[in-house]
Write a structure and sequence with these properties.
The chain has about 260 residues and is mainly α. It has one domain: MetI-like fold, CATH 1.10.3720. About 85% of the residues lie in helices and about 0% in strands.
Length: about 260
């Protein structure tokens, strides 16, 4: 299969799948006597979505959700990489802290969300904390494994060149681990937006999660689906952005080439 044909198929097949999905949805709604209040047809949701995009107040909610998501994601990225690398380089720290971190990860974060709102308030801070807590573990776990998986032969080469531990980390361990870390970041960005929306559901006064709750309370189900569609597009855009970051920062890795 030629590269051109492969690219065309990668564009055509998802488009065809979406077209079939929405066609089946529309057919079912119109022919099974389903109430539009329960499941609106796609065309009605499309009109509601366009109306949302034309409402200036919606973009304020988009800005709030993006701020919470990116704040939580960047916090998780910095903390996850730092702590993962530190535990990988200092085994006693890993032995003492890793079980505690894993145990904290097993606690349902949705159950902790009300506590975070109680501790940090109803503003952006609590949503950023919830988002960051959800996004932290994939980055941490991938960093820890990736740093520890550096080829011993490469370490010996750096040792023979009398490289310092800092030089070994900067020029060998971190570049080698980068593709795996970015894989964790791809998972983390998805969890970050979920955390922001959960926080807005529970104790928000702005953001797309809060807007979705308002549309439900107003019984505007088509507008609710429109908000969900907008959230989906934002989440997809953020995921693609992290994927592109992999291409820029680790173009040599096989996983980056496979996405072309």
């Amino acid at each position: 299969m030629s590269p051109r044909t492969r690219k065309l198929l990668r564009l055509a097949l998802p488009t065809l799948t979406l077209a079939l999905f929405f066609s089946g949805w529309s057919y079912y709604v119109h022919n099974a006597a389903v109430s539009a209040f329960i499941l609106p047809p796609p065309e009605k949701i499309g009109r509601a979505f366009v109306a949302l995009l034309g409402d200036p107040s919606v973009w304020r909610h988009v800005r709030v959700t993006l701020t919470e998501t990116l704040g939580g994601f960047l916090s998780a990225l910095v903390c996850g990489v730092t702590l993962g690398a530190l535990l990988a380089k200092v085994p006693p720290l890993e032995w003492s802290l890793k079980p505690f971190i894993v145990a904290l990860q097993l606690i349902p974060k949705v159950a902790l969300a009300p506590l975070f709102i109680l501790w940090f308030g109803f503003g952006l801070e609590s949503k950023i904390v919830i988002s960051g807590v959800l996004a932290f573990f994939p980055v941490f776990a991938n960093t820890l494994v990736a740093i520890k998986s550096t080829d011993p032969a490469d370490r010996e080469v750096f040792a023979s060149m009398r490289a310092s531990p800092v030089q070994t980390f900067v020029f060998l361990e971190l570049p080698t681990a980068l593709p795996v870390i970015l894989t964790g970041a791809e998972v983390a960005i998805v969890l970050a937006i979920i955390g922001a929306i959960v926080g807005e559901f529970i104790g928000g006064n702005a953001g797309l999660g809060y807007l979705a709750v308002m549309k439900l309370q107003e019984l505007q189900v088509d507008a609710l689906f429109g908000v969900i569609l907008l959230l989906t597009l934002i989440g997809l855009s953020l995921y693609v952005s992290v994927t592109l970051m992999r291409r820029l920062l680790a173009p040599w890795h096989q996983s980056s080439a496979a996405r072309l």
